[in-house]
Structures are given as C-alpha cells and as structure tokens.
Structure prediction request, 501 residues.
Amino acid sequence: MRDEEVRSMYFKYFQEEQLPFIQCGKCGHKFFYPRVVCPKCGSSDIKIGLSEGLGKIFAMTRIYKKDGSYVVYGIVEMNEGFRMYANIVEENGNTADIGKKVKVIFREINGKKYPLFAVT
Amino acid sequence: MIVGFSGKLYKKYEKDGIELLKEAIDEALEMAGLTYSDIDGIMANIGRGSFHGNKTYLNPPAQIGEYFGIKPKIIDHVQYGGPSVLAMIYRAYKAISAGDADTILCVQGGKISHIRDSNQFQKTDIIDSPFDDFIKVYDQMSPISDYAMVAYRHSKLFGTTDEQRALVAVMQRYNAINNQKAMFRDPITVKDVLASRIVSYPLHLLEIVYPIDGFHVFVVSKRTSKSALRNIDILAYGEAHWPNPPAEWDDIIYTPTIESAKRASFNLNRVDAFELYDSFTITVMLQMEDIGLVEKGKVGHFVESHDLTYKGDVPINTGGGSLNTGQPAYMSGGVILEEALLQLNNMANGHQVSDANVIFLNGIGWWSRRHTVTLVLGEKK
Ligand SMILES: [Zn+2]
Prediction:
C-alpha cells in the first residue's frame, strides 16, 4: 500500500464514523498513526483494521480559554491496544479522568469528520 | 575551548532578528578576543519565523554566513528544538579536535515577539510531524497541553502534588533575584504559584516559560590566549531521540533523558550544579528523575527535602532558568548553557555556586520531549 492510500483510507473511514488502526502482519504490533511500515519491526506487511471504538483515558489535561471555558485533550488507549491523541467530550455529567472509559464519537473539524472520544 | 559567549534577551526587540543576532555575535567575539574573519565554522538553530519579519531561513548557518560575509569550512544546521545548542557545542569540539575548523560560531535563538503577540501562527508548509494532520487538528496547546498531561499522569501515578511542582518555581525564582538577566525577579511563594491561573490543568501560569526575543552565541575555538575564560572541556556527553509520537511510547512520564544520561554516564556526586531544561516545572522534575538524581516517582518528596537554590545542597538552575529569564524563540538551551559558563568562570554575580567546577546540563527538545542532550562541562584534570 502507498502512504497516500493509507491516509485516504483513514479519512474515508472517519467520514463513515469508523476508527481505523494498523496491525503488522509480521510482528502483530498495533498502532494508530498511519504508516506504510511497522514502526516496531520495519515490515511493510501492514493491514488496516477497524476498532470497536472502546477504550480508556491514558492521559489528559483541561485547557482553559480566556473566557474560563475549557476543552479536554488527552491520550486514549483503545481496547485493541493502540494509543492516540484526541479531544475528549464530557457528556451527560460524565467527567473525564485518567482510567475512565471512553467511546469514539465523530465531530466535524474544518469540514471533515474526525474521531473524538466521549466519557461513558 | 569555549572562548566567548553572549546572551541577548529582550521581551520585545524593536529591530530585526538578524540585527539582534549581530549584537550577540559582537559581544561573544569581543569576549573571545576574535573577529569575524577568524570564524571558519557556523552551527545554528534559529526559531521559526524569527529572522526578517516572519521569514524562516531554510539553512540558517549558510544564510548567516551569507549575510555577514563569512566563508566557513564547516556548517551544521542542528534543529531539534531547545537542546540543539548543547549538541552544537559537542559537534564543534569534535570538529575542532579533528582539525576541520579553528573557530566555530554556535548560534541559537530568534526574534519571535511578533508571533507571540499575534493570535494566529503563520500557516506554512513546514510540518512538525508526518502525523500533523491527525494530531494538530484537535483543540490543543502544544507543548503546554502535552507537558500538562505528563504532570497530571505523574500526579495520578505517584501522588506528586501541585505544591511540590510549585516549589521548583519558587526556588528557581530565588536564584533569579540577583540575576541581572532575569526578567522576573520578585520573590514568590508556593501560594503565589498556586494562585496564578491554570493554563492547562494542572499547570499554572507561574510554572510555564514566557517566550521572548533572544539569541545566544557561543564561540568554540582553539585560540584561547586572548580569552580570559577557563579552559573548559566536555567531560561527558550523550544524546537520545525518541521520534515516535509520545502517545506510542511505553509511558509518557519518561523522557529520552534516561538514555542520554546513561550514555553520558557521569558520576553525579562530582557535580557542583545542575542546569536542567525548564520549559515547565514538571520538565525539571522529569529530568531530575531521568538523570538518576532520584528514583522515578519520588521527585516530589525530593524537592521538599532538598534546597535547590544556588546556596543549597543540590543547586539546580542557579540563575533562575528560563522560567525567569524568559525563553528565547521557544528554546531554552542557550539559557542553561550560558548559566553553566557563568558558574564555571565565577561570573555569576549574586547567584554564584561556590567552587563550581563541574556543571551537569540536560536539555529536552521539541513540542513533546522527543530529543534530549546530556552535557557535562568542567576542566579536564
Ligand atoms: Zn511489525
């Protein structure tokens, strides 16, 4: 697969509200950030899989804006084992914290859908 | 072999970046007793958008040479953020030892107040990571939000408190009180730090560097007769790079410093003072752990039970660090290197560590702690 294909597949999945990840066919390593080569073993035997969209918060911060409002930004660890950065949304009174469970949701940013996470 | 140095720091410099650089080069050359015609090597790392207006030089050492009429035998563009200038010193020493050049100018900094003071960064085709499209789209505030995540995770895992982090800021401020170059010189307390607004939880405003205009220039040369400086040598050196996004690391509470410090392999009992990169309070604490001064997770207790001021048992950031001088062009490496040289040459008026013969430096670079350099300076005996 070419880098451009991997990237456009990611964006295609995002528009369909699916969260892709990559699994190495040689060493089994799973990772999110799209590459045509496994960052662990160097193999180009890579396969795009789809996450079930469930995970937990590995790290997070609340970024305060000048008007006193804030956004949550963090690293989530998905049940499949890969980690990624994203904004985290607190809905229905669920407050974000390290270790709390999240599920993927999709929101439009600059006219395209991207994965975010909601505290469950 | 460092025969001259200069740090020119301004909250807001009125002229262009290149004119600020000339001020620094002139002062460093004067200390060295050398002139522009002696320079036969240039190594540089210049802040983005910091030279002419918001222009970025593609190859700063070459373009600096072009502007000043220098024809180097060797140039090097060392660009991985804050600690780059520490790596330049090592590379310059090696080049001079190998006979590749006689006098090398090492430059870091830039004029960035126009970027700092505008609300939007100039969008360019220069990218920081192949994955910018998947990371920078989010509402975030790198590097502040990145280090804030580390600080919060450190607290969750080890019970490190806001008060403990604040102590780092308080002790560094004490060191800054008599440092003429410090921008912030009024004493502060833990309460003051905790009362300052939270920028990215749990980091408070007084735990975060303020970006300023500034250049540091270090002249590395064999010719020492005209310079009054001590003949300082590199006693140990190590660098390490973990270029993957930290989200993919085993854990974000470690930095590559655990490897760069191991490569330098220096006995910390021989160290008279530490100059540790201080973009944030948590940055200093991470390095205290990763260089081996204290076990991972125990730095909170360590800062409570030791005096980190220049008068203390473990002097750290003896001039107040960049938390108090401001951070030139978003990079603090020059600040800690200049302070190390002041200490070693007994020039740190009002914040001098007595009998300072060995200084341990550690730098961390990029938005997310990916690059580290460990450098130990002193006289070889
Ligand atoms: Zn693999």
Observations:
- Chain A touches chain B through 32 residues (CB under 8 Å).
- Chain A is about 10% helix and 45% strand.
